[in-house]
Amino acid sequence: xxxxxxxxxxxxxxxxxxxxxxxxxxxxxxxxxxxxxxxxxxxxxxxxxxxxxxxxxxxxxxxxxxxxxxxxxxxxxxxxxxxxxxxxxxxxxxxxxxxxxxxxxxxxxxxxxxxxxxxxxxxxxxxxxxxxxxxxxxxxxxxxxxxxxxxxxxxxxxxxxxxxxxxxxxxxxxxxxxxxxxxxxxxxxxxxxxxxxxxxxxxxxxxxxxxxxxxxxxxxxxxxxxxxxxxxxxxxxxxxxxxxxxxxxxxxxxxxxxxxxxxxxxxxxxxxxxxxxxxxxxxxxxxxxxxxxxxxxxxxxxxxxxxx
Length: 308
Known about the structure:
By secondary structure, the chain is of the alpha/beta class. It has helices at 50-54, 71-77, 90-93, 105-118, 137-151, 165-173, 189-192, 202-218, 230-239, 260-263, 281-297; strands spanning 8-13, 18-20, 23-25, 28-33, 63-67, 83-86, 123-127, 155-159, 178-183, 222-226, 244-247, 255-258.
């Protein structure tokens, strides 16, 4: 994980005639100065920048990435993550849609704003929604300018192949940082007839490497690899110079990302193989709500401690 900036502590004993704001100081003075010149007694984390991500080296600690869709969750995740993705997966996770194809640009703008209000440390990437970029570079630029301008996010993610390299190049030329998403692309589910793992054949691997290299050449600052065989993902990761982020890919990637609700055990039903559940919060929430319901029905809540 990228290292936070720390406070630098200077200590000195002031001379008897030391004057500050018109008052004589004769006791020991301690001045706390952080690298952002903000006065604080606590360790602070500086904002991770595009240059930080670009300069990430292959032998550095892997980048810690998660999705986030709301301000409350972002406040919890932000200190621990290098990168947060406002993914169009919010259509399924938040809105209960069957896939991501009905997610709108307005939805991405609203959730992007929410996350940006709460993120002070992590680098924030927002997905471009289906139908807003893939058919026309000019439309892509218009959509991207709106998404960047209204959310203030740090970068955008596009699901691409090498055919969309000109679109990446156009966005990059307009100072819009692009993360290229290759491999299993959820926005292509209807065209491909489902969620299909990539990189199973030499031909597929060759095409994926070509996609990654074309995106890098076009100006993508990072490549996200999803749902791709480990050996293929490893080969992609070693073929490009930009950082790679894996989800169902390879530990050789420069970072890893999961859908936060999957990782926390909030989603019921099918769990993809690549998801490791670090908690089972759906059970915790259910048990907690059950206790609340029992108290309400028994008129135990609210008692005198919770009324005015």
